[in-house]
Amino acid sequence: MKKIITGFSFIILIGILAACGSSSTSGSGNSDKDEVTIGYFPNIDHAAGMVAEDKGLYEEALPEGTDVNYQYFPDGSAFMTAIETGEIEGGIVGPGPAMNHFTSGAKINIVAAGATGGTVIMARNGADIESAEDIKGKTFISPRVGCTHDVQFETMMKNEFGITSDRLDGEMKHVTGKPATYSSMFESGKVDVAAVPEPWAAYIEAQGTGEVLFQNDEVAHNVNMPASVFVTSEKLKEKDPGMIQNLVDAHKKATDFVNENPEESKEIAIAQIKEITDQELSQEVVDSSWERMNFTYEVEANEIQMFADSSYELQFLEEKPNLNGLVDTTFIEE
């Protein structure tokens, strides 16, 4: 088993993590490919990927003798490029990059979910923010402009409180940065509010630099919309649907393991993140993160379409997207 970290060093890698057609299967699960590469981010909402690697579940599901490699990515765009070029056969990524690449013409499919939830809105200690109204005139941070967490936060603020960002001539200033740096940016007073993917909300709490302003179940598109999804290419689906079925079967088994064995899964996640990134998350941080996530492989196309519509309404997309064909639930139904 070969492991590859694509892109940058740990600080860049871990900071960017979490940013932003139906076909019948062969039924046999056979594949003529003797080497398969799986991609994911070493992040809490990708726990199924870490468990599958640790337990050798892809190796079990694929034909005997198949070599399974793992590749870790600095951001969703790099992951999606690897899917499109065939550098990897499948893996876990945020729904935002999958949606954006699909609307740009990429021939890819979401074949399962990875997790839901996990976005929390944090306020800096000392910023005098106790309600949404207090965010007017303040600076908020998200991993990227138009990323999953940015869309979730701005949708909530616009629809529920009538408050928008300076990008829309509103009263909130928006900046971007790596989630791993949010705690230090709170401490220095550089930002006031953060749309935070886990585990970084729990990390901020543990560091004592900020407090929860809106819990994960209060944030737009954060209950049923996937925080992570399992993606493959349409080209692979046409050429070797049996391989995709094998990969999804392993992913489902890993997800079930996560739900049935949370404490062992947490240990695996802590160990994998440390091995990949050289940073060890505390048990306290992982425990808090885990409570804000729901690990599931079930995915609903309408949830992702609603998220895409929100992106359009916030003017992150120039045209209203049609995501018909992006989600293929064939393989999770087998």
Automatic annotation (TrEMBL):
It is found in: Cell inner membrane; Periplasm. The keyword Cell inner membrane applies. Coiled coil: none annotated. InterPro entries: ABC_SsuA_sub-bd, NrtA/CpmA_ABC-bd_dom. Keywords: Cell inner membrane, Cell membrane, Membrane, Signal, Transport. Pfam families: NMT1_2. The keyword Transport applies. NCBIfam families: SsuA_fam. Belongs to the bacterial solute-binding protein SsuA/TauA family. This is Aliphatic sulfonate ABC transporter substrate-binding protein. The lineage of its organism: Bacteria, Bacillati, Bacillota, Bacilli, Bacillales.
